[in-house]
Amino acid sequence: MNIVVCVKYVPDATADRHFESDNTVDRKGVPGLLSELDEYAVEQALQLKEKAASGDGGDDVEVTALTVGPEDAAEAIKKALQMGADKGIHVVDDAIAGSDYLATSQVLAAAIEKIGDVDVVMCGMASTDATGSVVPAMLAERLDLPQVTLGSVIESQGSGDSWEFRIKRDGDTATEVIGATAPLVLSVTDQSGEARYPSFKGIMAAKKKPLDTWSLSDIGVDADKVGLDAAWSAVEGTEERPPRSQGEIVTDEDGSGATALVEFLASKKFI
What we know:
The protein has helices at 36-53, 74-83, 101-115, 135-143, 200-206, 216-219, 257-267; strands spanning 2-6, 9-11, 32-34, 62-68, 87-91, 120-124, 147-151, 153-159, 162-170, 175-181, 184-188, 211-214. By secondary structure, the chain is an alpha/beta fold. The protein has one domain (2-230): Rossmann fold. A hairpin with a 4-residue loop joins strand 9 (162-170) and strand 10 (175-181).
């Protein structure tokens, strides 16, 4: 079984993040890391590999971590390799900068098609910087594959070239159980299982694992179809978040503190 995990390099939420002059997110001037929600996807891919290896046939499963982004985005691939992925592919091209969801899914789909014979495309439920949650569905459409997305519980059974998957999807009013047969696109939520930490052995082994770099021409994508100029949406302006104002201090010298607190909560519609 061949599993491709789509991962993203995102700005560290604890860093001083800001926008470029063209209103795109600065992804080079701030520290970054593998999106936390994508770590769950890597974990589920590795669990599939371990389950297949422990079966009667000892199926051979390869996990490939795929990312699209600037040079620093290779760090997301390296983290996935340290966790246990077998190899990495990094699509990097200056023309990609500023791409929207449509262009990003096009680049990912083209890279997956170049890899070939992919049984499972694994994704996180969203990226922690954009939280769009639409790329997995777009990938399924572009690759003409069934999608089982936003899974909080993932079950699988099979061997060789025949694998079936079932997920539990928790909604606001109901829980759905969805099944499909590979090949498919599968995305997982942060409830699917805690992601493992890279061990020292895994960190050292990752240094010897292959990490290939592809350009747009390598995957057959026209540079005019991606990037900021090709985006279907645009950010017209940004401004710094205003500093936090000092909160109101309520004293209870005359016994009116509780009333003031209730009135404040009511004014904010908390109660």
